[in-house]
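Page 42, continued from yesterday. The earlier attempt failed because a stray header line got pasted into the input along with the sequence. Redoing it now with the clean sequence only.
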Amino acid sequence: MENIREKLAELKNKYREIYGNEAEASVFAPGRVNLIGEHTDYNGGYVFPCALSYGTFALGRKRGDRKIRMYSDNVTRLGIMESSLDDLKAYENDHFTGYVKGVIWAAEEAGFVCSTGMDILIWGDVPNGSGLSSSAALEVSIGLLIKTMFSFDAMTQPQIALLSQKAENDFMGMQCGIMDQFISAMGKDGHALLLNTGTLQYQHIPLEISGAEFVIVNSCVKHSLVGSAYNDRRNECETALRLIREAMQDGRIAMPASGKLPEGLCELTPAEFEAAAGVLQDQILYARAKHAVYENDRTIRAAEALSHGDTELFGKLMRESHASMRDLYEVSCEEMDILTDIANAKDYVLGARMTGGGFGGCSVNLIRKGYAEQFRKEVGEEYTAKTGKKPLFYAGIPCEGARRV
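This time it went through. Structure tokens are written below.
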């Protein structure tokens, strides 16, 4: 928290420099690492992320007109970018401001109407394209900022997450699930969050793992999910679900044990999926659906294992998760496979997997205590030798979710 206070003081000075007055409100929202449970969130399944100390600050002050002025201390070359409460639309040259406008738009759609414009300054240290949810941290910080500035007392933390997701889905055109925004809003210091994305029921699970720790490695391969195959994967899962539901409705395959048609693939157990898989003649649809169903099962088992301190089983499930993303969901890439293969070959690494949407970004690694420096040295050197890229290493310490600072 001391570092947050120091950075906040610096940003308050910057705010005065840019806008000529004091910020009325200041907030912080974290990025996240997903320990296991990838591409299950939009399939109605479980995820198991934790919030990180990296995140986004947002400072703001209400104006006397309807103008929105936005400045990012990360991309100072853009200067102050302007919009209006009367023009909450997405444009090609929006840069970071699309996320800001999108959250304000989503809030107004839900009845939280900003009465005036505002001057906003943001700064974040979640690496862009790393798969650690820089966009969610920005969205949630803006949601909490307008809640604070306009006294939207009825706007809850889970609602901020949902509004942020709506902004990304319907304003930015990225069909993400709820995980990133929810953990940014609802993280808890020292805990991971087991979230049922179908019901939004959640449980904070302490990460008091004896003899092991998480280390995050940035492959330094950047992804752009909006322009990638992410939306294609979601559409493929929706098609697979539709085919299974149709076969259940007309009696070609049995209904699940619940007696209800599944609303998401992850409502099926592995056994129920295999019984229904015959209707998926397209091998791509079968592979995508199988990943979602089995990844959901792995996530439930992994959270249970970690809650009992079974790091060996958790590591095994991490390895299986990466193999599934590589072979069934096809969202890995050459560099990420090299990075996880190097890590998984170390006898002090319990498990390594890609984390995030895919096509680059970061891996999350569960390693034995006392090996962090050796891990950084050995994995860093081998990865650079094989790819020519120098990886970055971050501590995977679970931190508090979005808050006023």
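Notes: The longest strand covers residues 46-62.
Reminder to self: strip header lines before submitting.
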